[in-house]
Amino acid sequence: QVQLVESGGGLVQPGGSLRLSCAASGSMFSIYAMGWSRQAVGWYRQAAGKQRELVASVTKGGSTNYADSVKGRFTISRDNAKNTVHLQMNSLKPEDTAVYYCNTAPPGADYWGQGTQVTVSS
């Protein structure tokens, strides 16, 4: 079974930066079977009282896509050899406050991790 573990969240002032990391752990076969090493992976977020949304994704080849709300501020990257994906978040705004998760894109329902809390507040 594959586990997705997110880290790097925290409390930051508006205009600040954070770098989130996600690691997929499990056997090579299980990671391949769930799609992590074959398809796009993404960062999602869920703010209190709102639905989870995809904020950024990156294909195996490195092509990226971003939600309009984070374009120009967030950068997603992945390391295929290490089965990791990162999200560099700059110029953070209070509306970026949420729990951030990683998963494949589209997401696998069985693989959501605990997420990492990002709070943007002065």
Account of the protein in words:
The model has no long low-confidence stretch (mean pLDDT 96). By secondary structure, this protein is mainly beta. The protein has a six-stranded mixed β-sheet with strand order 2-10-9-4-5-6, with no helix packed on it. The chain is 6% helix and 45% strand.
Could you describe the largest sheet, including whether it forms a barrel?
A: 6 strands, mixed
**Helix percent band:** under 10%
Alpha-beta classification:
mainly beta
Strand order of the largest sheet: 2-10-9-4-5-6
Q: How much is the radius of gyration in Å?
A: 14 Å
State which percent range the strand residues make up.
over 45%
Unreliable stretches, pLDDT < 50, 5 or more residues?
A: none
List how many beta strands DSSP finds: 10
Given the C-alpha coordinates, what overall shape results? globular
Q: End-to-end distance, in Å? A: 40 Å
Total of DSSP H or I helical runs spanning 4+ residues: 1
Reading the helices and strands in chain order gives EEEHEEEEEEE
